[in-house]
């Protein structure tokens, strides 16, 4: 099992380019099942979760070849429905994304339960309700531990999702793309990766309107063709680099950062006293930061909440918490989505952070605190990288164990940080 050895206290300087968005790559790969013609995807992040999805697609009969640096050719000329590896499905949450396109294309899928981060209950009910509304049938075999999806014919429908689930929205979009008639998808998620999925389907010949809103209009087409698409930058990685620069007192330029997707993040970080500049598609993080928490009117303690896009995303909560440990003042963080998101804060407390965990969903951070190097385990993708940031800003040496969790979501992150001046090494144990 690999671990990171980090000697903190070194400001980061230089330029860095983020990888493609993992959360876009996964549904885009799944969407390639909808067409018999080849699709070329560029800027594919070659990380564990994406490689696991590649294996799952290949097990269904899809031909995938690397045609350039981070460019893949995906050709689902013929597909199978029975060969999914249960272990691979349990490895990633995104295996559920196979349901929509496979029901649309092959009219059948046998899917073992998906896995992913252990950050709280992550229900699949919304996925099933959306597919059933389009004409699919779903059964769960408790003995074999497998979902059975079947469909005679999918047809458009007026669907109100019971929650704005990203992956359920993506499944519904893919299933509706070739369904007969028009689908109105309401209470849809609108994250950048959902938008990119819609854009790819339209490039392949689909007809999706109102992209970027929470109500999508999807006119089903008889079939989709081939095409090319470039995956956008991972805004989660971009914000992680911003946080790394801030906690180390450094100054960096993030190339091709997609600043158009960071308006709400910018507002939230401004409340923590963090600023950055936008230069075209680049973001410049200056070394001089105010790092003072902005109180609410009447000097009340401010509260930072996660909400569905375009509000502050849950995946950035752990990064914001680490930044807040270095800011002067007090702030309450509230993540109502996942009951396990906050548990990593005890590791920050062990490093010297002043944090009170109120309950599984809320914590109070008072800063600034001088962090001290410590040996900690990475509990999940986002919390793991947050601990890396804390170690970069800490006095002394830290060991981050179980970094395989971080590798699932970030490509060669230690190499990118080292190129910015971080003292970080990967060690195999």
How do the helices and strands line up, and which of them pair or pack?
Blueprint lengths: L1 E6 L5 E4 L5 H10 L7 E4 L5 H12 L3 E6 L2 E5 L10 H6 L7 H8 L1 E4 L13 H9 L3 E5 L4 E5 L7 E3 L5 H12 L4 E5 L5 H12 L3 E3 L5 E5 L7 E4 L4 H14 L2 E4 L8 H9 L5 E3 L2 E4 L17 E3 L11 H8 L4 E6 L10 H6 L3 E6 L2 E6 L7 E3 L3 H13 L3 E5 L2 H4 L5 H7 L3 E6 L1
Parallel strand pairs: 2-14, 3-13, 9-10, 17-18, 21-22
Antiparallel strand pairs: 1-22, 1-23, 3-5, 4-5, 6-8, 7-8, 10-12, 11-12, 14-16, 15-16, 18-20, 19-20
Helix pairs in contact: 1-2, 1-7, 4-6, 5-6, 6-7, 8-10, 8-12, 10-12
Tell me about this structure.
The longest helix is centred in the middle third of the chain and has 14 residues, at 235-248. The protein has two domains: 2-19 and 233-428, UDP-n-acetylglucosamine1-carboxyvinyl-transferase, Chain, CATH 3.65.10; 22-230, UDP-n-acetylglucosamine1-carboxyvinyl-transferase, Chain (Alpha-beta prism), CATH 3.65.10. The chain contains 14 helices and 23 strands. It is α+β, with helices and mostly antiparallel strands. The protein has helices spanning 22-31, 48-59, 86-91, 99-106, 125-133, 166-177, 192-203, 235-248, 263-271, 317-324, 345-350, 381-393, 404-407, 413-419, and strands spanning 2-7, 13-16, 39-42, 63-68, 71-75, 108-111, 137-141, 146-150, 158-160, 182-186, 207-209, 215-219, 227-230, 251-254, 277-279, 282-285, 303-305, 329-334, 354-359, 362-367, 375-377, 397-401, 423-428. 30% of the residues lie in helices and 24% in strands. The chain is globular. The strands form six sheets. Strands 21-22-1-23 form a four-stranded mixed beta sheet, with helices on one face. Strands 2-14-16-15 form a four-stranded mixed beta sheet.
């Amino acid at each position: 099992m690999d671990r990171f050895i980090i000697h903190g206290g070194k400001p980061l300087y230089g330029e860095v380019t983020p990888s493609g968005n993992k959360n876009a790559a996964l549904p885009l790969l799944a969407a390639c099942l909808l067409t018999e013609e080849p699709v070329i995807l560029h800027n594919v992040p070659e990380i564990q979760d994406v490689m696991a999805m590649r294996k799952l697609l290949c097990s269904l009969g899809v031909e995938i070849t690397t045609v350039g640096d981070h460019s893949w050719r995906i050709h689902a000329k013929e597909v199978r429905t029975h060969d999914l590896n249960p272990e691979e499905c349990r490895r990633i949450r995104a295996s559920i994304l196979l349901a929509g396109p496979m029901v649309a294309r092959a009219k059948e899928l046998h899917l073992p339960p998906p896995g992913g981060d252990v950050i709280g209950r992550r229900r699949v009910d919304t996925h099933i309700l959306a597919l059933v509304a389009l004409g699919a049938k779903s059964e769960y075999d408790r003995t074999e531990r497998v979902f059975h999806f079947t469909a005679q014919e999918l047809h458009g429908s007026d669907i109100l999702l019971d929650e704005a689930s990203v992956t359920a929205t993506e499944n519904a979009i893919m299933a509706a793309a070739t369904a007969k008639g028009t689908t109105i998808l309401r209470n849809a998620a609108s994250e950048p990766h959902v938008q990119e999925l819609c854009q790819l389907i339209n490039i392949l010949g689909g007809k999706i309107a109102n992209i970027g809103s929470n109500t999508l209009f999807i006119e089903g087409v008889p079939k989709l063709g081939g095409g090319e698409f470039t995956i956008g930058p991972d805004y989660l990685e971009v914000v992680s680099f911003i946080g790394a620069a801030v906690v180390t007192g450094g100054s960096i330029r993030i190339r091709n950062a997609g600043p158009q997707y960071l308006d709400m993040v910018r507002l939230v970080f401004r409340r923590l006293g963090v600023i950055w500049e936008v230069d075209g598609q680049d973001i410049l993080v200056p070394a001089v930061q105010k790092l003072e928490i902005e109180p609410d009117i009447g000097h009340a303690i401010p509260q930072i909440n996660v909400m569905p896009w375009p509000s502050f995303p849950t995946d950035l909560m752990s990064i914001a918490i680490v930044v807040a440990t270095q800011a002067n003042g007090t702030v309450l963080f509230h993540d109502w989505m996942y009951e396990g998101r906050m548990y990593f804060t005890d590791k920050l407390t062990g490093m010297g952070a002043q944090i009170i965990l109120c309950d599984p969903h809320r914590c109070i951070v008072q800063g600034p605190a001088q962090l001290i190097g410590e040996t900690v385990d990475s509990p999940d993708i986002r919390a793991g990288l947050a601990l890396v940031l804390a170690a970069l800003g800490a006095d002394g040496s830290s060991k981050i164990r179980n970094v395989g969790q971080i590798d699932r979501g970030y490509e060669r992150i230690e190499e990118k940080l080292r190129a910015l001046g971080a003292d970080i090494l990967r060690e195999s144990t």
